[in-house]
Amino acid sequence: MPSQWKPSVTVAAVIEQDGRFLLVEEETKLGLRLNNPAGHLEPGETPAQGCAREALEETAHEFEPTALLGVYLARSRKRSTGEDQTYLRLAFCGKLGAHHPQRPLDEGIVRTVWMTLAEVRESAARHRSPLVLRCIEDYLAGKRYPLDAVHADPSVLSGR
């Protein structure tokens, strides 16, 4: 019987301040790659909560999602196994909060970087996903959807 297709659900933050975007440089099997602050949605949290958590863990900045940018699909193959992977990404924009410089960054995150749009575009070969630039471009195009466009049933938060 064929295995069931199960995309990995991820959340990502597009954080802009003074014309620069906050990205993370992270160690991957393919070397150092750039990404939006992003990660896997965890049990018991809404996508907006997961996005805030990931932004804090990866950048040491508090982040409050205020709008959904979009829902994205991307597909790749693991180089180590050839396994086909599909990612369903929910990207948010919002308010940058306090920075906690003493807070350690998530495992694998080497550093955070603030980049202009031109620098993000020039570094496309180093992006972890083709969605890095796409999410930023959607942000700049003014795409915004209300947070309640993503409904989380109360059972999600209660862990049922």
Automatic annotation (TrEMBL):
Family matches, as CDD domains: NUDIX_Hydrolase
Protein's UniProt keywords contain Repeat: no
Signal sequence residues: none
A GO molecular function held by the record: ribonucleoside triphosphate phosphatase activity
Enzyme class: hydrolase
A Pfam family: NUDIX
Keywords: Hydrolase, Magnesium
Domain named Nudix hydrolase: residues: 4-137
Cofactor entry: Mg(2+)
E.C. no: 3.6.1.-
Domain of life: Bacteria
PANTHER family: NUDIX HYDROLASE 23, PHOSPHATASE NUDJ
Family: Belongs to the Nudix hydrolase family. NudJ subfamily.
Quaternary structure annotation from Swiss-Prot or TrEMBL: Monomer.
Name listed for the protein in its UniProt record: Phosphatase NudJ
Species for this entry: Ramlibacter tataouinensis
GN (gene name): nudJ
